[in-house]
């Protein structure tokens, strides 16, 4: 996500590296209040409420896991399973034939190529995902919110780097799920997909399914030491 690392990993030409590339495609998200500076857009009460609901949902769990399907800009498809533990920990474990493993251990994000036996590490705080992995998530203060859309049972929130040092954006997509009374509330939300668009306008999408909240993954799933030479 540091600007000088943009798409470096993708240049290896291996399937499954698009997620690693999108992890490195943007710099850290600086602080900007929603609608709070002269470059930020103004949001109406409905949009601000949508952001509040998203924040509430993201803070409603500490542990999350599920299956993911990644579609790279060249339409290559990769699959695997991810595990998230806030604060600061996430793991993307690709299925074969991809040999990639991405681990955040609370301090670093490590990109492991199990075929080449390489490990590249980058500060997690220098990635756009840090805004989502903090102990307390608040997109209003940890990112610049570009747009908020709520329609047809979906909430889309696009964020970017408000410092302007690098182009690119991250769009989070959530499904609204009706409860038995037919009312959509704070807990009736589900992460569905995210899109990362880089400085060249290329987009990588990651769709998730079979989500499980609250099941704690083993501690050693978020350690990088075993992959160090």
Word description of this protein:
This protein is mainly β. The protein has one domain: outer membrane lipoprotein receptor (LolB), chain A, CATH 2.50.20. It contains four helices and eleven strands, in the order ααββββββααβββββ. It has an eleven-stranded antiparallel β-sheet with strand order 6-5-4-3-2-1-11-10-9-8-7. A hairpin with a 2-residue loop joins strand 7 and strand 8. The longest helix is centred in the first third of the chain and has 14 residues. The radius of gyration is 17 Å and the shape is globular. The N terminus is likely disordered.
Rounded mean pLDDT score: 79
How many angstroms separate the termini?
A: 24 Å
Residues in helices, as a percent range: 10-25%
Strand order of the largest sheet: 6-5-4-3-2-1-11-10-9-8-7
Q: Rg from C-alpha positions?
A: 17 Å
Overall shape: it is globular
The CATH C-level name is Mainly Beta
Low-confidence stretches: 1-40
The helix-strand sequence is HHEEEEEEHHEEEEE
Task: Work out the strand percent.
Answer: 35-45%
Largest sheet composition? 11 strands, antiparallel
Total strands: the figure is 11
The CATH topology corresponds to outer membrane lipoprotein receptor (LolB), chain A
Task: Tell me which CATH architecture applies here.
Answer: Clam
Return the domain count.
1
DSSP helix count?
A: 4
How does the helix and strand content classify structurally?
mainly beta
């Amino acid at each position: 996500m540091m600007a000088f690392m943009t798409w470096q990993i993708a240049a290896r030409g291996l399937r499954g590296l698009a997620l690693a590339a999108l992890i490195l495609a943007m710099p850290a998200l600086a602080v900007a209040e929603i609608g709070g500076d002269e470059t930020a857009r103004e949001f109406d009460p409905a949009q601000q409420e949508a952001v509040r609901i998203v924040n509430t949902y993201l803070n409603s769990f500490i542990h999350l896991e599920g299956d993911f399907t990644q579609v790279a800009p060249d339409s290559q498809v990769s699959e695997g399973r991810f595990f998230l533990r806030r604060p600061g920990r996430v793991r993307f474990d690709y299925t074969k034939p991809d040999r990639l493993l991405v681990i955040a251990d609370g301090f670093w994000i490590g990109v492991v190529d199990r075929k080449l036996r390489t490990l590249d590490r980058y500060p997690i705080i220098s990635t756009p995902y840090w805004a989502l992995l903090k102990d307390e998530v608040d997109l209003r203060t940890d990112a610049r919110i570009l747009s908020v859309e709520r329609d047809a049972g979906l909430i889309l929130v696009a964020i970017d780097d408000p410092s302007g040092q690098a182009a690119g954006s991250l769009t989070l997509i959530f499904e609204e799920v009706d409860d038995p009374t037919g009312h959509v509330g704070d807990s009736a939300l589900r992460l569905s997909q995210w899109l990362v668009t880089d400085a060249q306008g290329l987009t990588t999408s990651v769709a998730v399914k079979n989500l499980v909240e609250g099941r704690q993954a083993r501690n050693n799933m978020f350690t990088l030491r075993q992959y160090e030479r």
